[in-house]
Each structure stands twice: as C-alpha cells, then as structure tokens.
UniProtKB/TrEMBL annotation:
This is Multifunctional fusion protein. Keywords: Cell membrane, Membrane, Protein transport, Translocation, Transmembrane, Transmembrane helix, Transport. The chain crosses the membrane at residues 259-277, 356-375, 381-400, 455-474, 569-586, 593-614, 676-694, 700-726. Residues 242-404, 549-728 form the Protein export membrane protein SecD/SecF C-terminal domain. Part of the Sec protein translocase complex. Interacts with the SecYEG preprotein conducting channel. SecDF uses the proton motive force (PMF) to complete protein translocation after the ATP-dependent function of SecA. Signal peptide: none annotated. HAMAP family: SecD_B (MF_01463_B), SecF_B (MF_01464_B). Residues 122-236 form the SecDF P1 head subdomain domain.
Amino acid sequence: MIKKSKLITFFLVVAIIFGTVIFTAKPVLDKINLGLDLQGGFEVLYQVKPADGKSEVTNDVLKETVATLDQRINALGVNEPVITIESGNRIRVQLAGVTDQNEARKILSTQAVLSFRDANDKLMMDGSDLVPGSAKAVTNDKNQAIVTLELKDKSKFASVTKTVAGMAPDNQLVIWLDWKEGLKYKTERSKEKPAYLSAPNVDRELDTKKVEISGSFTMDSAKELANLLNSGALPVKLTEVYSTSVGAQFGQDALAETILAGIIGVAAIFIFMMAVYRLPGVIASITLVAYTYIVLLILGLLNATLTLPGIAGLILGIGMAVDANVITYERIREELKVGKSTKTAFDIGGKESFRAIFDGNISTLIVAGVLFYFGTSSIKGFATVLIISILVSFLTAVWGSRALMGLLVSSNALNNKPGLFAVRRKDIHDLHEGKQTFDLKTHFDKYDFVKHHRAFLTTFAVIVVIGIVILSVFKLNLGIDFASGTRAEITATHALTEEQINKDLKSIDMPSNDVSFQNNNKTAVVSYKGALSQDEIATFKEHFKKEYGEDPNISTVTPTVGQELAKDGLWALAIASILIVIYIAFRFEVSMGIATILSLLFDAFVIFVFFSIFRLEVDLTFIAAVLTVIGYSINDTIVTADRIRDVSNKMGRFKKPEDIAFAVNHGLRQTFIRSINTILTVLFTVVALIIFGNESILNFSIALLVGLVSSVFSSIFMAMQLWYVFKRRELKKKGVIQTQKKKKSARNDQPVV
C-alpha cells in the first residue's frame, strides 16, 4: 500500500528547496565579495624593513604599519580592503575595485616622512613637530591649492625661521617628502620638477603655529598629500616583492565567461545523471541545486572573497559532489540485481557505499587543507571553496539525497519498479539463488586485468623514463610566479598585431622580446625577465589605457618570492602525498597506501610532462590543479579498493596468488563503470571550463583534464596491479593471508526518514 503522506512530504521538501533558492538567491549572492580578479583592483606584497636600516621589525611595528596603511586606504575610498601580516616580516594588501591603481600604489608605498631643511639640506624640523591630523587642503587668496599644517611648538618654529632668515640669500626653508641621502636642494631647484614639495623664502622670524605648503598642486593632489600626512609616516620602509593588477573590464568578462562555463557544465551533469540513473538521477540533480545554494550561502555568511579559481573550485565541486550519488546508486542497483527488495537494496546500498564516499572525501579534504595552508590569495580562495564544497557535499549528496530517496522508498511507490533505477528485469536474479554482489556478471568479465600486470607496470615505467628525458631536455615553461619577472596582459576590442604592440612598447622605452597573443589576438601578453618598478608600471598602464581603453593586467614577482613559491609548491605536494599514504594505510593497509600514492604521483608527473611538451605556462594555479588531481583521483582508487576489500573479506583468506588475482579482477570489473561515471561528471565541468571559461584559468583547467584522464588508467592499471604484486610477495614471505574482517558492533549510517 502506497503511503501518500511520504510522497506529500517528498514533494513538499522539494518545493521548499526550490522556493528557498528562487526567492533568496539574489540576497545570498549580493553578500559574497568578489575578488580583485573579478571586479578589478590590485594586490601587492611588501617586504618590511626598518626605516633607519638598523632597528628591529617587531610584531608591534608591523601592526602599526598595517594601521597606517588602513588609514591611507580609507582616504582612497576603497571598500573592504584586505591587509594581512605574513611570516618573514611581510604585509599583503588586496584592494578590489580600486579605480586608480597607480595612485593607490603610490600612496601605499610612500613612507610619508615630512622634513623641513635649510638650503644646505640640514634637518630643521620633521613630521614629529606637527599636530597629528592637522593637514588640510585649501585654497589661498590667489585661488591656488595649498596644504596647511599646524605645529605643536611655535617657539621652535620661530627659532628655525630666525636661523633660516639669517642665511640669505640662501634663506629657503625646503619642505621635503621622503627625503633621501644624496638629494640636494641646490641641485633640485634648477629642475623643472624638483623632488621637494616647496621651498619658500624666509625673510623674518615667524611666531606662529601655522605652516603652508604651496606648489603646483591641484586640489586633488593637495588632498592626497594632506591625507598622507594625516595618516602618519610609515615607521618602516616597504619594498614591493610581488604584485598583480587586474582591469575592471577584464574582471567582468572573466566572471561572465566562468559563470557560463559553470552553467553548461552543471547542465551536462544533470542530463547525464537523469539519463543514466533515471529517478535517482533526478534526486541527485535536486540535491546539487541545494548543494550549490548552501555553498554560496556559507561563503556569504563567512564574508569570504570569491576569486576566479574559487568559482572554478565551486564548479569543480559540483562535479565532485555528484560522485557520492554515483557510488550510492551503483551499490543500490547491485543489490536490486541480486534480488533484494527496493527498501533492502536502498538500506544496504547506502550503508555499503558510505565507506568509499567517506574515505574519498577525507582524502580530498586533506589536499584542500594543504592547499589552504601553503596557498596565497586566489589559491587560498580556491582551497576555501573546495573545503566548503567537500563538507557540504556530505550534507546534500550523502544525507540529503538519501533522505529524499528514503521518503520515496518508504512510501512503497517504488516497490517492484526496478526500471526507475535503470535496472532491467532480465538482469535481476531470484533472491533464493543466493547470489552475492561480487557474483554479478559485468561487461568486463572476459578481461583478466591481473594477467598482464607486468606489461602494464612496464608501460608505466617506460612512460616515466621518457617523461624524465622530456623534462630534462625541454624543462618546464615557468611563469613569473616561479621564474620571477613581469607579465602584462594588454586587452583591446580588436585584434592586435605584434608590430603594433612592439611599436607601443618602443614608444615608452620598454621593449620586450617575449610577446604572445591570446583570445583571437585581442589580448597581447608581454613578459619581462626583471620586475618593473612602480614608475614603469604606472607608465605602462597609462599608455595602454589611453591607446586601447582598458587597463592592462600586470603581475610582478621578485626572484626571492619566486623561489619561495616554488619551494612551497613542492612542500605542499610532498606533505599532501605523505598524509594520503598515512590515511589510506590507516583505513586499508600500508601496501594499498603505497600503491595508491605511486599512482597519484604518476598522475601529477604526467601533468608536468604534458605541460613541458606543449610549453604551457606553469603558474600558481598549476600547483593547485596538480594537488586537486591527487586529492580527487584517489576516489577511483578508493572505490575499487573498497570493493576488493569486500571481496577479500568474503573469501576469508588468500592461500595462493590466484586468490589475490580473483579479488583484484572482481573489484576492477565491478567498479569499472562506476569509475568511468564518477570521472565523467567532473570532466563535464572541466571541459566546460576549458571551452567556455576564461583564459586566466585555461592552464588550470587543462592540468585538471590531463590529470583526471591519467587517473582513470593509473588507478586501474597501476595502483591495483602494484597492490597485487605487494600482496603476492607478502603471501610468498608469510604464507596464508587472513582477510576476514573482524566483526564490529552494528552501525547505522542511514538518515532517519
């Protein structure tokens, strides 16, 4: 008898999910901050050094510097700046949405030390003699913009002006901002644009607290100087060691392209799931909608900043979240085929699939945690989204999906309707036959995966040797993140030519031997071996903004930071690998952990070789992609390992090599389609990112594609073959291997419906 109350509850829950998403999606999206790569802006990393070259840079000094920078940024009118102190006496500043990046860069790095000197450059007064916050931009009686200051002690000013007045004809009180050793007033005064602010003549002793700074100020430049002086002088010297800037239009285009890629990729997943799994596929699609909404909601509540790699992580997470559904539905279908009732198949399938889902997600979570720890800026944003995605997928794809399915199953509306689960009646055995799931026939029963294990492993070894030769000859095409230097992207609404760009570069005296083109020649990429100075960056941006109407994107990395990023990338790869080995060894056994990590490292190696052959640029997102592949592709291995463990447990022991081969073959045959389907769901999103996504994450997406395709083969033909070799050696050394699983107390992983 059909329980209508369960059906009503099901449709009510679905209505609530879609109603919530439809009516609250816009407020949720409005709360999410977009990173500078999506709305334009710039990021800069400063090395903090003592102003006098001798003092120690303490934590208190760093905090004082951050406070001063924050005041300066507020004067710029930039919303929600991100200023963080990093190890090694560094400060990272991120300004999204800033309109004048050149002005912002200048104001941030200016030390803003005001000094009053005589014509012989002797210090008479400095910024400590000023009343804090007293600087004002006003106009004088000649309607000229000036800056007025108030002094703490008028008697000191009287003494200073008396001394300077007595130095006639060199009776100038020279006002400097950031005076440096070697600057001389008598040299500078002959220049059209002297380095000092102003040099008024002093004819008499002045008994006043008021000081005026005059010069060729506009009201805007006068306000800028007043704001600098009011925010205070920096207690340290800031040296720029890394920077990246993105034009506003570029950010908008990147956002639109990535969202389009996401919609196409997710739509492909929905169609695939419904076509392959029928009703369960529909439920998976519903929970994916809930999953996406909850991830965005959490990002909004955390006030997180969503970057371009972060959106890619969200899209990738959707493909990964559906894996739990694939694993569960395949298990349910197997239970139906051995003759179990719909309810029993649902209960057992959900319980048996939970282990593989849990292990796979924990492994990916380990990698995401390593990425977050070692990552910087946009990579940390990608890791954040990935971590949230993994946790939310447990809530929706595991518990949510099963809860919805549980309502339909418990309503009895699905009884004796295997077609709704894409199971043909002719494939269903009678329960009395006593068939077990690993007895079921597959399309791959005629294949003996273990028989040719030596050939498979030899093939992988040959690929590694050839890859090493390729890497040693061609090496990697390191981007500026690791090689250091400057990279500029010039964007126009029309196709650009190399002749045209070279002419432009020559006109600003900044020629380059490395000019390439992207986006149908509408984007020119110019690279320099050295890091451009602030003045050079300003000149570059001003010229190309004037010529083509859009701000070029410019990134600079010093050799020191480039080496550190490379070292951190290698450490991240090593630590992630070690942690995965430890976890797999704990959940399965050491031999499985070693076999697994060797296959994962092979996938990473293939990505390196592929990028070397095709001269694709290796940047920070490349490392993120490699680690993501390691974290995700382990799912395939775990699903197969979990099935082999089941088969081994039911066999009780391995007495001869043929027993081990039997377990491996059965595990591979029965999870082959499942492995293909789980990879396909992610490949849909990755391919969509490659075809429709933004150029900025193209190499990132290509690395994912190569790694995921490689993982299909390495999981089947390398990891499991290695495990077979390890177990066969163990058998030869120790004799009979007991595989019977010790019984544990009953545990119910199913949600209560």
